[in-house]
């Protein structure tokens, strides 16, 4: 997994910072996905000790809602950064490939070869 991430970062070139930032947002989102479990454990502990109150339940519900909203935000930022970086990297690589192919010899497509193969292409 780490080797794959290194290869992706090396391949991405100047867009490496976008992917790093997307990884940070992805990490934060994954950490927030576990926060409701901790809040639920805290609520159960308070119920077990008979120290729970209505205000505490509202605060925990609000905390869970904030966690979910932050997860949505971080996932959106992660997707936006990764997809835009991927699109720009691939566009740049396509341009590099096109420049390389322009320098390649294209002797196969001479006029003589095209004249010989034209009758066959019409039959198809």
Write the layout of secondary structure elements.
Blueprint: H1 2-12, H2 16-33, H3 35-48, H4 54-103, H5 111-123
Helix pairs in contact: 2-4, 3-4
Describe this entry's structure for a reader.
This protein has 124 residues and is mainly α. The chain has one domain (2-104). It is built from five helices and no strands. The longest helix has 50 residues, at 54-103. The chain is rod-shaped. The model has no long low-confidence stretch (mean pLDDT 85).
Q: Strand percentage, roughly? A: under 5%
Integer average pLDDT: 85
Q: Give the number of domains.
A: 1
| Count of helical regions | 5
Q: Could you name the key traits of this structure?
A:
124 residues, 5 helices
Summarize the structure.
By secondary structure, this protein is an all-alpha fold. It is built from 5 helices and no strands.
């Amino acid at each position: 997994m780490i080797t794959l991430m290194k290869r992706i970062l090396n391949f991405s070139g100047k867009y490496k910072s976008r992917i790093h930032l997307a990884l940070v947002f992805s990490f934060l989102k994954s950490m927030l996905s576990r926060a409701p479990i901790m809040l639920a454990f805290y609520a159960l502990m308070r119920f077990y000790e008979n120290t729970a109150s209505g205000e505490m339940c509202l605060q925990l519900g609000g905390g869970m809602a904030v966690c979910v909203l932050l997860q949505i935000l971080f996932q959106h930022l992660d997707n936006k950064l990764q997809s835009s970086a991927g699109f720009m990297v691939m566009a740049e690589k396509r341009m590099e490939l096109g420049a390389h192919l322009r320098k390649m010899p294209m002797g196969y497509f001479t006029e003589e070869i095209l004249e010989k193969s034209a009758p066959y292409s019409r039959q198809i």
